[in-house]
Amino acid sequence: MELSHTLRGFAIVNFEDIRGADCSLQKSSLESLDCIWFGQHEHRMHLTQGQVLTLLPFIRHFLERGDLCLEEQEGHFAGVQFLLGRNKEGGMEMKFNDHDREPCWMEMAEGMVAPTVCFSVLSQDTRALVEMYLDQATLQALLVFFERFASTGEIE
How far, in Å, are 14, 18, 112 from residue 22 at the CA level? Predict the structure, then answer.
């Protein structure tokens, strides 16, 4: 997993999820607010620094314990509203809207050999649900970029 740049000069990290889907974490070109794009190439979450700050404790918990936080909670963190609860299969999920107000989820993926988290985004335009499955090793490699973005607004 290496940092490179798009043709327009934006920092990008390309990687594959555990199902072989092409994914990326990329600095957004949005000028009014520091954001990143995160997900499969055809449709990605558009996340602000506050949203990344909100996700970081749950990502770290997953990396340390192989699951998501066990307490159901609703609240605001870094100005971002989120809901952590149980999905219809009984697993834990975190729901939030990205900067473009598209519904997003972070949840434990069921039926995987190793602990895996699924990031999902529902496109308001196409109504397509795009999922990205990350194991602990991949998410650990991405953590440095998330942490850097949360503190500086940049991924490089």
Answer: 7, 10, 19
How would DSSP label each residue in 82-140?
A: EEEEE-TTS-EEEEEE-TT--EEEEEEPTT-SS-EEEEEEE-TTT--EEEEEEEHHHHH
CATH of the domain at 102: 2.30.31
Could you give the CA distance from residue 156 to residue 152 in angstroms, rounded to a whole number?
9
Place of tokens 């192989």: 66
Count of structural domains within the chain = 1
98, two tokens: 């990205």
**The one-letter amino acid at 89:** E
Q: Helix 49-65 crosses helix 136-152 at what angle (to 10 degrees)? A: 150
9: left (phi over 0), alpha (psi -120 to 50) or beta: left
Q: What is the pLDDT of residues 113-147, one digit of tens each?
A: 888 999 999 987 878 889 999 999 999 999 999 99
pTM, 2 dp: 0.86
> Can you tell me the mean pLDDT for 20-24?
95
> Domain of 11?
3-152
